[in-house]
Amino acid sequence: MNSSLGLAAELTDAVARLGAPETVPAKARFFQALPGGYAAGDKFLGVRVPQLRGLARRYRSQVTVDDAEELLLSEWHEVRLLGAILLVEMFSRADALAQRRIATLMLKRIERLNNWDLIDSSIPYTLGPWLYRNPAERHVLIELADDDLLWRRRAAVMATFAFIRAGEFGETLDLAAKLLGDPHDLIHKAVGWMLREVGARDRQVLDTFLDEHAPSMPRTMLRYAIEKHSPAERHEILMRKRK
User: pTM for this structure?
Assistant: First the structure.
């Protein structure tokens, strides 16, 4: 474990050396880390995502799940994001047992994935595929969607991207209906995005969902869902919302 902690510290130092302090204020605003924002108090180093992916490629043959978990515990946003990226790398090459361990870790540490970029870059490629291949565990989606923590609810929605890519839409549609009354804009955006992905693969499935739910959908959710519709179709669907 000491060597693992040593590598996590080395990676943290490597991220810090890539930092651009002059970009930190803009990042804090963009990710709503200022007082009153959904990520108030988060800390940034000013490192770009391509730089983090470069580090991940350089270290992926050395890093363990323990290393990645240590990175997720960091106070720095970009270090946590590196941990998430590395877990995706590991998951893609892991056997079934190791994939279960990674999926379990994602569930355990979702509170450390405390912004939309951290969720969206990891959950659809780790927890999502694992749940898809393990139907007996899919109750986790409902448990996450029922949680008070915003990031758990977003994780539930984004995990279903793995199901969508496999041509299964039921979980996404069920969660979309369940979360129609969610108060947070980040959930509206995530649900609308996943509905749009359903429609990209089967337009009739999406339109059937909209026929039932469009009038009660939050406007942001609805707009995201119908982005690929024609202007005339978008106008007609949005008119239903106004009635």
Answer: 0.93
